[in-house]
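Appendix B, Record 12. Input sequence as logged:
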Amino acid sequence: MKARKAENFHEWYPEVILSSKLADYAPVHGCIVFRERGYAIWELIQASLDAKIKAMGVKNAYFPLFIPESLLKKEADHFKGFIPEVAWVERKEGEGEERVALRPTSETVIYSMYAKWIRSHRDLPLKLNQWCNIVRWEIKQTRLFLRTREFLWQEGHTAHATQEEAEKQVRDALDAYIDLVENALAIPVIAGKKTRLETFAGAVYTTAIEALMPDGRALQMGTSHYLGEHFPKMFGIKYMTEDEQEKFVHTTSWGVSTRLIGAAVMVHGDDKGLVLPPKIAPEQAVVIPIYKDDSREKVFAKCEEVRSRLEKAGIRCIADYDESHTPGWKFAEYELWGIPLRIEVGPKDIEKRQVTAARRDTGGKSGIPEAHLEAKIAELLESVQKDLLERARKSLEENVVVAKTHGELVKAISGRKMVKAAHCGSEECEQKIKEATEGGTIRCIPFRQEKISDRCAACGSPAKHTVYIAKAY
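Logged structural output:
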């Protein structure tokens, strides 16, 4: 690693991704190739979240990548929100064919089908999710995982008989995201509602989870929207009640994307490379033999025994028997990869009937008795997972600044901090904050409200609520 995280974060970030073989730049500008290890992380995230999605009674389906222009334009505000990012398919139109776009999101195509499938209260709730790719022809600067023209995500779309049911689904989805990000990715988040200016196009309201990256920028980690009857009225999604009244359904949509991988890289990585939380690490432990010629066979056999035992215990473990590289080279390589634990096995370890485990996050080493190998390694992995979250939580707390005046707000944002402040709720004031801070936006109105001041920090008007403000990716 040439770049240093604290000195040149924006050079360090792509370097660590490329060097650790998570991804590479694709031949098409703004797109990336997910390499094996990067995609393995996504598979682990996907498996964790998919279980939570199914637990909510949501089933997986798949809808087309292509969206007819008429559907995309049917909801004007929604389409307007995506106009700069829509990628249109260039082709010679056949007789009677209309232009099609590559999906920037799937509300329109999914709700056109819901209008066909929903007829009665017995058809509700209809709760579907799809794991797919999304195309948004970004005109801003693209960044590996964070902002690319094509990315992977899941998008849940549900239809309900009542507003109460739909709003519960909105919060259930957001809670699933909070659990995923905090407990699997070890990244603390702030959960809340978006302001009207930041609300998803076509939604009644948007809820979101926000995290703070080491460079002082916020990253939106996931969103869950209450769409109300807006899309159903546009697409004619109606149902007949038990007493034969015709009503519109209430809809929700929610999603997270592969930007979660970028967040984990930024929050936990260091100057040696990645530091992966065990729950999303493709390899949770690597066994490295330390030997001389006369002990080679014995050490290799013990390494394979250790690897096999851990693998059978459900720990993702590999062993490196490559004799063309020194142990020191291997230490550096697997530190770059971010593997949570390195297990060293040498003649002295065999004599003591132990292995030596080194933590990637702290560098600390400890002897693990062979008799308790599986249990002790599992405990170490749990400790790494917990400590990474606590370290990230402490960093978040240290980098959130309370501002009570306009000057304090501007100074904090320019100092790459996230600001917690009282706000009047005015959209005009919100726009002025963005101008005064050169891009700072209200990231969310947190669900957990606390009184900061009776006056808005930006304009001095009576305060309506507490908000978090930051520049964002």
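The chain has three domains: 9-268, 283-382, 400-470.
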